[in-house]
Amino acid sequence: MKVNAIVAAAGVSRRMGAEMPKQFLEVGGRPLLAWTLEALASCPLVEAMVVVAPPGEEASAQAIVGGSSVALPVWVVAGGTRRQDSVRAGLSAVGPEWEWVAVHDAARPFVAAADIEATCLLAREVGAAVLGTAVHDTVKEVDEDGFVVRTLDRSRLLLAQTPQVCRRADLERALARAEAQGLEATDEAALLEAVGQPVGVVLGSRRNFKITTPDDLAVAEAMFACRAG
Ligand SMILES: Nc1ccn([C@@H]2O[C@H](COP(=O)(O)OP(=O)(O)OP(=O)(O)O)[C@@H](O)[C@H]2O)c(=O)n1
Ligand SMILES: C[C@](O)(CO)[C@H](O)COP(=O)(O)O
């Protein structure tokens, strides 16, 4: 099995509120995107990557690729307004010789090679797979006035992470269907579910959290400092 990883790195980082998109911020002394590319490249099944950059920032992304230790073929393309637009742009740069793609967030630099591999292998077995974690807190449904309505059964809930792995052709079909039906989704699994594709689950680690807010960035700094020390 050989996998082409589509790295979604075209977001604007509204919740981070920094002076530049978070994927270009220095964390642990290097751009966040560099850590993520190297984490993906550490999985032997990943044999190429497509980095989806904010439109107009392709050169910055290319410079980060060049400054990383990644020795795989890497293409850089411009993304779109929504995550699914960016993934679609990335997918269009993946040639038909690639049967399998793994979509991964640039904002998840701590993904483990073993978890990427397990997600890819489950996808090969069942058609598609997503990495995620169980819910570790009690989950409440709340009404618009801020009062608790009920406590949900969390035993069947999954916090979806990336990578999310499937056949190139299935993702293309799911994205095209979403476009035709005006469906918006925050991850690939939701698009695949909508076309009836079963999606298996690999339970991974909370270390693979998505750097979303300034608090997350502080946690990431501490984790990189531990790794270096
Ligand atoms: N149009 C978009 C939106 C998001 N992403 C990517 O998808 C990943 C997960 O998205 P998120 O963390 O929500 O990033 P942003 O969209 O940048 O953040 P925010 O929602 O706070 O603006 C990120 O690596 C981000 O760069 C993307 O490639 N293209
Ligand atoms: C794909 C994702 O990382 C899974 O958790 C997530 O959905 C990305 O976007 P979000 O807007 O932060 O939900």
UniProtKB/TrEMBL annotation:
EC identifiers of the protein: 2.7.7.60
Keyword Transferase: yes
GO biological process: isopentenyl diphosphate biosynthetic process, methylerythritol 4-phosphate pathway
Aminoacyl-tRNA synthetase recorded as keyword: no
UniProt site positions, description: Transition state stabilizer: R15, K22
Site keyed Positions MEP for the nucleophilic attack: positions: R154, K210
Residue ranges crossing the lipid bilayer per the database entry: none
Pathways involved: Isoprenoid biosynthesis; isopentenyl diphosphate biosynthesis via DXP pathway; isopentenyl diphosphate from 1-deoxy-D-xylulose 5-phosphate: step 2/6
Alphabetized UniProt keyword annotations: Isoprene biosynthesis, Nucleotidyltransferase, Transferase
Enzyme class of the recorded protein, top EC level: transferase
Top-rank taxon: Bacteria
SUPFAM superfamilies reported in the protein's UniProt record: Nucleotide-diphospho-sugar transferases
Molecular function per GO: 2-C-methyl-D-erythritol 4-phosphate cytidylyltransferase activity
Catalytic activities: 2-C-methyl-D-erythritol 4-phosphate + CTP + H(+) = 4-CDP-2-C-methyl-D-erythritol + diphosphate
Entry's family note: Belongs to the IspD/TarI cytidylyltransferase family. IspD subfamily.
Role of this protein: Catalyzes the formation of 4-diphosphocytidyl-2-C-methyl-D-erythritol from CTP and 2-C-methyl-D-erythritol 4-phosphate (MEP).
PANTHER family reported for this sequence: 2-C-METHYL-D-ERYTHRITOL 4-PHOSPHATE CYTIDYLYLTRANSFERASE, CHLOROPLASTIC
Name by which UniProt lists this protein: 2-C-methyl-D-erythritol 4-phosphate cytidylyltransferase
Organism, as annotated: Dissulfurirhabdus thermomarina
Name of the gene this protein is made from: ispD
